[in-house]
Structure formats: C-alpha cells, structure tokens
C-alpha cells in the first residue's frame, strides 16, 4: 500500500539505467565474439588484436575521469546522453573501418565513451533514491553487466549468421539510439520532473541533505583527492576490479586447461557462472538496503554487507582442490556473485558519503584507478601462467591466483574500515 501512495517512477529510472548498462556490455563484447571472423577478414595476428584491446582498456580508464567530471558539471541527463551517443557511434564505426588501425581507433573511442555509464548511473541513483534504497537500485542496474554478458553470445552469432559481421556492429550499435529516445523523454532530476508525484518526491528526499541539489558548489579534483571518502572508493576498486577482470577473461581458459572444456561449443558451465553474478548484484544491493530499513546506520549497513561479501568470496581458495568441473563452477559462481554484491555496495557508498555534486567525479577517479589496476594485473597473470605452463603445472599458477582473489576483498575491507572509522555521524 505504501508504494501505491508514494509512486514508483524512480524504479522506471532504475530500469532505464539497467537497460543502458546491458547495451554497454553488449557493445563492448561484439568484437571478441567476432574475433575469428575478423582475424580471417583482416589477417590479424594475436599481437594486432592485443593492441586493439589495449586501445579500449587505456581509453576506458582515461574516460572515467573525463566523464566523471563532465557529468558533475553538465548534469546527469546531458552527460549520459553524450556518453551513449558517442559510444553508439563508435560501435557502428567498427562496421566502416578497413584496417587494424581503424579498429583500434573505433575501439578506443568506444572505451572512452562507455566509461561514462557508471559515473552517470551512480549519480542518477543518488538523485532518484533515498539512501535506504540506493544499494538495491545500484544492484539492479549493475546487473545489466551480467545480462549483457549473457545476451551478447546469443545475439551476436545469430546476427553474424543471418546478416554478416558488419550488420552485427550496425544493429548492436543502434540499440543505444533506441534507448536514448526513452531517456530523453523520461529523465530529469526529481525537482524538474513533472510526472513525479509530490509524495514520491518527498520520499526520495527523506534523507536530510545539507545543501539543495541545485545550489551545491563544485569541488575541485585536488580537494576530492584529499578526502578519505574518495580513497574509500579508490581502494574498493583498485583491489577488487582486477579480480573481476580475471574472472571475465581467464575463466574460459582455466576450465579448458584444467578440465579440458571444449570452448568451440556452447558452455553451460560458463553460463552458470555469469548468471550467478546477476543474483549477487541484486542480492548484495537488497541486503544492505534491508539493514538500513530495519534501522541500521547507513555506513554500518554498507560495511557489514561488504564484510559478508569478503567472507563469501573466500571459498575460491578451495577451487584448487576441485576435481570435478561442476564443483569448480559452484565455487567460482559464489565468488563471482559475491564480487557483484561488492560492486553494488562500493558504488553506493560513494553516494552515501560524498556530496551529490561530486558523486560522478569520485566515481570517475576511482573507476580510472580500478581500470589501471585491471590493465596491469594481466601482466602478472600472464607471466605467472606462462611460467607454470612451461614448468608443466599450469594449475599451480591458477591456484596462486585464486589465493590472491580470495584475500583481496578482506584487505580492501580492512583499509575501508579504518578510512571510515571516524567519519562524521551525519554520513550514517
């Protein structure tokens, strides 16, 4: 009854953020799914392809800071629009280029623009949800990363077989423009949204804010880097983002090397792992929101959830003892789901402890830091696996990496705990 009186317009906004994030992950995965076709078409070597991937990764890291500051400056609606327009154009450009350099340029532009998704999404959640609902809303829109990871392997091969590789880029790239129609029509900050009822507006602003959303002074990056709040997010991303990218890019190889999984055929094992991340993202958001609704201080609710997540990740340490592939799938699925629960809450903490006018900037700074760490971590992964592969015991290399993954969240939580230990009670 309460929701009927209050209204649910804010959840429509959350759905828009979820769809955009899904499209974001579909667009970034297309080239990987078309890799065999494009290698044959353009005579790529593995080195050529690695350079194209590096173009995306490096520009994605840079774009986090650019879009983080831009969205705080020009607003969520226009900032998100710019991001989606540019990344959709970049996705379509892949169908028009005719060289490896051209693909590198298109891929770099895609990475630059796609980085605007999370600064805009987290800021939109801060604008549209009270603190007791933010983690759940963030978990829902963040689950688009998982849905995109599942949809792309189904959609792209179908488009390739039906039309061709160019059309696959055209059609997936056009999805962003379709989304923009609904975004432009339905999004505004609550104070300007005429479709919003007074009851829901009051509910959204039920948290006490020191400064109104339209009269806050802009904070410089130098000031933000001096805040413990910023370092909470940086630590949360730098120590755990590389683990997520390890799960994304090396799990198929792990299953192939350890359990002789045939990667040329559809894999229910990988589907289960990535499907579990959706449950983790939404479940992690729900848990901390539940703690707040039953009366816990906001920061205590977030930190307790993060601690639970850190504990849930630790079974990954035992993956090295799995002799059955489905046992390994179960253990790793729990860890990947826990990561997404961590992600939903670490993004939400920014909107809890940072002024609304600086949310996107802090997300940009932390996101860039996490992206840089994720770019460097593969150097360790590659060197470690190459060493043990040459020694004839590649499983030992994966075992060391699983130990790193299992410890990373605890280390991050301990640092975050001490950074937030004496924070002003008003943030709670």
From TrEMBL:
GO terms for cellular component: membrane. The chain crosses the membrane at residues 12-31, 51-71, 78-97, 168-189, 230-251, 271-292, 304-322, 362-388, 400-419. It is a multi-pass membrane protein. Residues 13-424 form the Major facilitator superfamily (MFS) profile domain. Keywords: Membrane, Transmembrane, Transmembrane helix. Pfam families: MFS_1. Coiled coil: none annotated. It is found in: Membrane. GO terms for molecular function: hexuronate transmembrane transporter activity. This is Major facilitator superfamily MFS_1. It comes from Pseudopedobacter saltans (strain ATCC 51119 / DSM 12145 / JCM 21818 / CCUG 39354 / LMG 10337 / NBRC 100064 / NCIMB 13643).
